[in-house]
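A common beginner's mistake is to predict each chain separately and then try to dock the pieces by hand. The better habit, illustrated here, is to supply every component at once so that their relative placement is modeled jointly.
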Amino acid sequence: MKLMRTKQLEPFGLWLALAILIIVAGFAYRSVSAAADTMGWVEHTHQVLRGVDDVSAAYARSVSARRAYVVAGDLSQLADAPQLDARLVGAISNLRDLVADNPDQRARVDLYAKRLDERVRSLDGAVERRRADGTGVETSDGLALSASIRNIREEIDGVENRLLAERDARTRRDLGTTEVAEVVGTLASVAILLFAFGRLRQEIARRERTQLALRASEGFLESIVENIPHMIFVKEAGELRFERINRAGELLLGLSREDLLGKNDFDFFPVEQAKFFQERDRETLDNRVVVDIPEEPIETKMGRRWLHTKKVPVVDEHGAPRYMLGISEDTTERRAAAVALKTATEGMEAAIQELEAFSYSVAHDLRAPLRAIDGFSQALEEDCAGMLDAENREHLTRVRSSAQHMGRLIDGLLGLSRLSRGELAREKVDLTQLARDAVARLRESAPDRRVDLVIADGLEAVGDARLLAAALDNLIGNAWKFTSKSSQPRVEIGRQTDEHGTVFFVRDNGAGFDQAYAQKLFGAFQRLHSVTEFEGSGIGLATVQRIVRRHGGRIWAQGEVGHGATFYFTL
Amino acid sequence: MDEKMILLVEDNPNDEALTLRALKKSKIMNPVVVVRDGAEALDWLFARGQHAARDATILPQVMLLDLKLPKVSGIEVLRAVREDPRTKRLPVVLLTSSREEQDVIAGYDQGANSYVRKPVDFADFAEAIRQLGLYWLVLNEAAPPERGP
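With all components supplied together, the output reads:
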């Protein structure tokens, strides 16, 4: 699975935290090293104080060794005096070195050393006097010196102690600042890290959601591809090996995807077929076009099937073909049905042609004998007029009218069969005008009849003018005929709109019919009135229905015996 | 033979008798030659076969030609007549009981001068024959007979 390119994490927080930590560390280092410096100086001060103590102690021993002799005549300690003096000189030299950095203190130390030396010299004088005269008394000068020495020492100690206090305070200040900086810096870093961590967790959660969604969407697409009831297959563009196939494809070919994937057409199909498939594949890939193969035979484990296949090139971002996607619909059954339908249609067309040939014979061959019956009856009528009585002549008239009626029946039947043939013209037809023409012909045929005729204006339809004229002739002719016995005959031709859309109608107030027989009206040779009552062939409404149906319309009738009839039709 | 002759091509004896009666009733006294099928009609016109002895230069004033004939159909007769230089201007009236459109169109395509449907009503039929006779025998000026080379 190809991973989605990861979005760069926003690094600002982490960088900030790192920067703050570095600054804090630098700051801490600086203050710690400053504190260490200061602490060095504190130590130095302690050394100086110790140096002062050492000098003082050495001085005290040098003094007491001498005083023991001067005051008590004790000689035992006096012998150690040179050694003690040397130690005092060493301690003073050490102290001098320690305060070398501080000129004021150096001056004091020098004064201190001078006074010490003076006191020791003074005591030496006392020692000499004791040896000489046994009066071991120190001079008042020596006592004054002692007080001065104490003062100087206190001064030196005071300076050093002040320095010590200052340096201690500085160290504490430095360490305090470091502490604050460390606490603040650490807190800031922790806060930033917590924030960055939060963001990271959010980012991880977001990415997890995205991946879940991606997986869900892949699963969705996968299940769609799997469930499409047409074979879907993908071949790679190089060697045309199968990369994908869906369940419908496995079922169609009778091969599992484990069998198919990684192989090509030559592994499964006869050479000619495999060649054909691959040629089409190349055509698709080379020309980057969708190739449509409406009828493609394929040999499967279940025998030959017929497919309607479309092959689609799949290109990469540079437009180079990568995959060939194929979609095949199994049209085997539909094809068989189409063949069956074609056979049936051909059979039907043959039957219709036969019927037409039959109609043609009927037209020609049945009319000829009728002509003879009528013609020779008339000849008899004319030639034997004197020999025939009224009844004989009546018989001949019946023969002739029957022959003529049959002639009209045949004409009607042929007219009906002619309606089924020929192209249906589609043009704008002015039904109002056609109705007026029909009425005009009727008025001409029976100039004495008075019929109240109402024809709506603007009746228009799209259809075959010749056929629609024939239909209106029939409907209006019927209305004309069946109102012949009405006292105030009225015929209305109009239009209304209802759930069927535009409905045309022809209404009369004539003889009407029983609604129970309404469906029979439209059958050929169906008549609801006797010929003696209203003459007619019984073919007219069948003709009208045929015309309306050929226009894709519908016709129906409403009537009541003695109260007229209305014929409705749509086109 | 100056008389204007009528050639009737009709296989149905009833129709023949009725046509002759209608002509007679209409006072058309011109001689009528009757042939029974298309082949005989052509033999007669071109003086061959059983009519070989006939003078082929004598043509009828009008030919009444039934469409539906044994052997050679009316349309085929008409085509042969129009193709032959001797008869190509011969007035031909198609007589038939069929009103089928293809007959009408085929008839005019082959150069029929007129087309009359035989009605069942004899009175109508007689009237149609009378008008035909009047027009083709009295009013119409026939084209002069074509002379052979």
